[in-house]
């Protein structure tokens, strides 16, 4: 299966994406994780990515598209993949779909985890206390919410039109949400 998982910052995409991908035996590909891994390097590009991420804004589309396609071209993605955090902008969406069309593949479904802002803010604060991600500050979180609403939410309308969207209630325990995620992928 070729899947996307979307949702606002702090909703728990990373957690659910790991569970789902291992259940389906497909690789989970998180652009956020790939960018975080890049930061270990001392290059100028790594520094730029670090600053952009810490502010809560998005990394530039061209760079993001390039690292995703490089990853999706590896052999382990041939039978399917779960993309977490990509596409996040309309140009990324267009790019991904053009690239997939060239490969003669298409998406099977787009999961969107939903939760109210109080829940996502609470989870984000808990994560900040645990692993201190530099973009989990109150200020960066505010920016991430705004950028999500402006740049990423419009993608949901596109996927709704394409009848790929599966909305999943992201509140409750990790197990409850995981059950709903698997249920959303079962044929009706
Ligand atoms: P979360 O799901 O909590 O919002 P991620 O780990 O997915 O966080 O992403 C963290 C940051 O990485 C984003 O705020 C952004 O700066 C960068 N990033 C991740 N994916 C993308 C993308 N597809 N396009 C641009 N920037 C991205």
UniProtKB/TrEMBL annotation:
Tell me where on the tree of life, at the top rank, the source sits. Answer: Bacteria
Where, per UniProt, does this protein localize? Cytoplasm
The record's section on Pfam families has:
ADK
The UniProt keyword set, sorted, is: ATP-binding, Cytoplasm, Kinase, Nucleotide biosynthesis, Nucleotide-binding, Transferase
Pathway given for this chain reads: Purine metabolism; AMP biosynthesis via salvage pathway; AMP from ADP: step 1/1
Alphabetized CDD domains for the sequence: ADK
Record-listed AMP binding positions: 31, 36, 57-59, 85-88, 92, 133, 144
Please give the residue ranges the record annotates as the region NMP: 30-59
- Major enzyme class: transferase
Recorded GO molecular functions are: AMP kinase activity
Binding-site residues, ATP: 10-15, 127, 172
What task does this protein carry out? Catalyzes the reversible transfer of the terminal phosphate group between ATP and AMP. Plays an important role in cellular energy homeostasis and in adenine nucleotide metabolism.
Domain description: Consists of three domains, a large central CORE domain and two small peripheral domains, NMPbind and LID, which undergo movements during catalysis. The LID domain closes over the site of phosphoryl transfer upon ATP binding. Assembling and dissambling the active center during each catalytic cycle provides an effective means to prevent ATP hydrolysis.
Assembly information from the UniProt record: Monomer.
Specify the protein name: Adenylate kinase
Q: Which organism is it from?
A: Amnibacterium endophyticum
- What does the organism's lineage look like at the top? Bacteria, Bacillati, Actinomycetota, Actinomycetes, Micrococcales
Give me the gene this protein comes from.
adk
